[in-house]
Design goal:
Blueprint (H helix, E strand, L loop, with lengths): L2 H18 L12 E3 L19 E4 L3 E2 L7 E5 L6 E8 L3 H14 L6 E3 L9 E13 L6 E12 L4 E13 L5 H27 L2
Parallel strand pairs: 1-5, 2-6, 2-7, 3-7, 4-7
Antiparallel strand pairs: 4-5, 7-8, 8-9
Helix pairs in contact: 2-3
Length: 206
Amino acid sequence: MHPVRWLLLAPFLILLPGGCANFPGQSAGKPMQTYMLAPAPAVPAASPTTATGPVLLVSTPQAEAGYDSRRMAYTERPFELRYFASNSWADDPARMLEPLLVRRLEALGRYRAVITPGAGADAGLRLDTWLEALVQEFQATPAQVRIVLRVQLTDLAGRRILASERIETTAPTPSADPYGGVIAANRALEQALDRVADICAGATGE
């Protein structure tokens, strides 16, 4: 190569490795990887046909700012939220949460039916859920995923709140990368869903 051309290209060649470095497990131009929230299902406690409890309406979960999109959030220091550039959820986490809540509560075998908005049936109870956090935290080793849910169970007929609780669960990541975070997220979510089921069962005394 001509010496002049080499000198012109040299600065770009020196900067190239730094420009390709991303945090963690990312690289420039990497195809987008998408992941599911799909924790292990609970073992049904009873056949739905034998349940005689009230109809439970699971309202559409809402998400706090920062967690209301498909972006996968992580943090390295307090108060700062970042997102993986080439990794995302298959859908908004709050939307993926709705069918998981329904299946977990159906597995209790305590409700005549567990429905979602638009089902066209009258419900005696309503469960409202807010996703306050779903974040992979790298402040310590090993990294962990933290999930925070706020739930409220309401007796619609009596117009009273039966239970209101903030649930926080964590799970360590098997690897310090986005896929390790996905595995940990599903483990932490399994714990959170079990806690939601306990709250609903305890509040109704079923």
